[in-house]
Amino acid sequence: MKTLSLYLATLSLIFISCKDENKEKEMEESADVEVVETVDKEKRITFVLESRSGSTATGKVSFAEMDGKVSMEASLSGLEPGTHAIHIHEKADCSAADATSSGGHWNPTFENHGKWGDEEGFHRGDIGNFEADDAGNGSIRLTTDLWCLGCDDENKNVLGKAIVVHQGADDFTSQPSGAAGARVSCGGIIE
User: What is the model's pTM?
Assistant: First the structure.
């Protein structure tokens, strides 16, 4: 009887040992394969531009952020034909009839006003000029890694600012704002 008990105990140990080895081998094999699923989510904000300064200029602006870059697209109508400036201003407040409630150009890095990307410097809000056709319609696009939507970097975060369209062209040299004339359309960059 002792022999039979000893024999069964030995068999049990061998079985448990083999089972543990198989389990260990499975765990080692599965450790070689790591499944990582990443999904880059696009942040998007779309808003309207309202007429200001007695104009009929209106529009729609979209900001989209993906992979560390922000794209802005603006489509406008009701403009006088010709060249118009578009800028980001300091505050998402377009309540004043002439949009002066939006403050000056957004310039968190304290640069001189200039043309976007100019080595001499430019405001982070110096988007540039665009053309309105004979029907008063125009559009502009810009993609940059100098902006973000809601990040903690105050030098990049465009939330809480405003898009302002001007009556005339930005000359890229006059300080502090490019002598672009009246603010004819305005909209806040808010979620």
Answer: 0.77
Residues 142 and 57 occupy one common structural domain: yes
What is the pLDDT at residue 41? 77
For residues 92 and 188, the answer to whether their CB atoms sit within 8 Å is: yes
Tens-digit pLDDT profile for residues 112-155: 888 888 888 888 888 999 999 999 999 999 999 999 999 999 99
Question: Do 140 and 98 fall within a single domain?
Answer: yes
CA atoms within 13 A on the CB side of 104: 11
Partners of 89 in beta bridges: 105, 162
27 and 70 inside one domain: no
Q: Which two tokens stand for residue 123?
A: 């405001």
Domain of residue 8 covers 1-37
Per the structure, the count of domains in the chain is 2
CA angle 74, 133, 84 (to 5 degrees): 55
